[in-house]
Amino acid sequence: FHIGEREEKCIIEDIPRDTLVVGNYKVQRWQIHTHDFLESAPGLGMFVTVSSPSGEVLLSKLYGPQGTFSFTSYLSGEHIICFQSNSTRFAVIAGSKLRIHLDIRVGEHFLDESAIKAKDKVNEVNVRLEHLIEQIHHVTREQDYEREREEKFRRTSEETNSNILWWAIVQTLILISVGIWQIKSLRDFFISKKLV
């Protein structure tokens, strides 16, 4: 994605609790002379801020033009990940664009292949088995989180349907009472004018 040099851009990630999130990014600066983005942006860094669904800041750190950040969520919900450059140029001068390449991985723990190759076959199987068990735990947490979200959505839908039913009943009663009042008023009017 692209942002201005002094602009803040935020991304919302829906993350289950107790989940590791790893993000890799790379910043490129727009070069006016070549009309292209430079391969790297030396001297330019990024402030990365991560907020939990309750608004608590989980991570706030300055990184270089490319880097890796990670955090573990302790609450389920929408986590806000914000990026802002550390540019100190004035707003009038700092008009160049930045391109950010971002890769966010939720719940993944990567195997170190070189460490696995160095160990014997029994240890390799053991490490892979532990990795699979960890992935199973992540899938279970993800399913529990989706189940919680579905239950919350169902409750909200049932409350809305109940409110709509009561509102329809109230509208019907108002309509009937206004109709009866109009009939009575017209009847009294015709009787007073001796038309009936």
From TrEMBL:
One GO CC annotation: endoplasmic reticulum membrane
KW Membrane (keyword) present: yes
Compartments (UniProt record): Endoplasmic reticulum membrane; Membrane
InterPro entries listed in its UniProt record: Emp24-like (IPR015720), GOLD_dom (IPR009038)
Main subcellular location of this protein, as a coarse class: endoplasmic reticulum
Keywords of the record: Endoplasmic reticulum, Membrane, Signal, Transmembrane, Transmembrane helix
Transmembrane segments: 164-183
Membrane topology: Single-pass type I membrane protein
One Pfam entry name: EMP24_GP25L
GOLD domain residues: 8-106
Family (UniProt): Belongs to the EMP24/GP25L family.
Name this polypeptide is given: TMD11 protein
Organism encoding this protein: Rhadina sibilatrix
